[in-house]
């Protein structure tokens, strides 16, 4: 007898690109697999491939969506306020999309999706007296530094003692940095450039 009432049992048959983007965001844009996406949506994995050619296509869609949602900086703001606004908006976006910072850090070209935000920031810098070249370079550097700092802020508190012991065998300077970083992340990150230089020199000596 045909069942006419009640909830249908079985996998979800109808879904769209937004469902895929949402699932990838929830799993983490840097770590998801296509199978995880399919399971989260409630469809078979091959169905996801009918919307996206592969994992990278989904990653690009998520990064693009994140960039579309990030507000632009007013070109009328003084340069310091413009920079602070950009960083604040960018960090909010990185927080909303787990794994986005790691993805951009590992694949810097994906940051080009944020060209609209760079354009308004560089215009604000130009209005404050920066050169065209200097403004563009500064905007890219701010994005790079903020991305790296965000990743470190997430990573440092998760470092375990046994990991510190392993690192200590190859890098005495870096181990000291990590020990202090867990107690004072902000101060440690401010000195990260110096530590990275020392670490690089140590490696070259080996």
From TrEMBL:
One Gene Ontology term of the molecular function aspect: DNA binding
Residues in HTH tetR-type domain copies: 10-70
DNA-binding region: 33-52
UniProt-listed InterPro entries: Homeodomain-like_sf, HTH_TetR, Tet_transcr_reg_TetR-rel_C_sf
Domain of life: Bacteria
Keyword entries, A-Z: DNA-binding
Segments passing through the bilayer: none
Annotated protein name in UniProt: TetR family transcriptional regulator
Species: Actinotignum urinale
